[in-house]
Design goal:
A hairpin with an 8-residue loop joins strand 1 and strand 2. By secondary structure, the protein is of the alpha+beta class. Helix content is about 60%, strand content about 10%. The chain is built from four helices and five strands. A five-stranded antiparallel β-sheet has the order 4-3-2-1-5. Helix 1 runs parallel beside helix 3 and helix 1 runs antiparallel to helix 4. The longest helix is centred in the last third of the chain and has 37 residues.
Amino acid sequence: MQTQLVGVCLAIVGFLGTILICGLPMWKVTAFIGANIITAQVFWEGLWMNCVIQSTGHSQCKAYDSILALPQELQASRALICVSIAVSVVAIGLTVVGAHCTNFFRDDSLTKTNIGLAGGVVFILAGLLCVIPVSWSAHSIITGFYNPLATQERRGELGASIYVGWASGALLIIGGGILCGTSRC
């Protein structure tokens, strides 16, 4: 039962990380430094908005105006991250019902075990739905960085949300795998 709780905790931390990367505008970070340090700006780009942070500490964020004007990669990433969050909610519900420490289906252990196994599989699916858009965005950022046509001042780099997204997806997959392994014991 302790191993199952570890799996649930890992998956829930991954779920919270997925919510975090969905909201934070730190997928792509671009630093622009002009002729002097006073004109330094940092641009953050996320799924839902862009932000500019001045060297004076002043920041300004603006939500994207039109969904249809966004690149297809960003539209797909938005959708997949939101689906990952929704699938994680379903997995949490299945895991609560199928966990050994709950009283749901106490008399029917086969059903309880199958529900717990389904919760683990759905957590793995949620992890994959998180890792795919994060990796796709990372690939796009890296290829844009090495594009010879991009200006030196505006080359984007991987933001914190990319790294948190990879960790969150991994935690969802590992937690789901642990739940699948403990469901048959």
